[in-house]
Hints:
By secondary structure, the chain is an alpha+beta fold.
Amino acid sequence: MEFLREYEVxxxxxxxxxxxxxxxxxxxxxLIEIGYSGKTFDFDMTVRxxxxxxxxxxxxxxxxxxxxxxxxxxxxxxxxxxxxDIHGNLSRHAKRSSIWVRDxxxxxxxxxxGTPTAAFEKAQT
Length: 125
């Protein structure tokens, strides 16, 4: 299920977040996200607001992916994520969880939650 990790990481990329068609390919129409802030977003809000984001001064760092098969066409990813500055320093640490569903042969994110967490050390790649 390495491809689910790749899909998840794609959603961290600025160019993907700006591309409505790519978002529609990766996100389920019934998406619900509970963000780091605690605010809830649905599919329409996400597809409307992500392309309006300004280019960040950081990149997203993610590590320690765990994969759980919930059913034949249903999987959960749990991982740690943080913002990484140009010097490699991490900040705004979170535990992330996503539920992916296979819909007409295509895996799509159906649920996502980000929860603030204590700082963690950057894993070696």
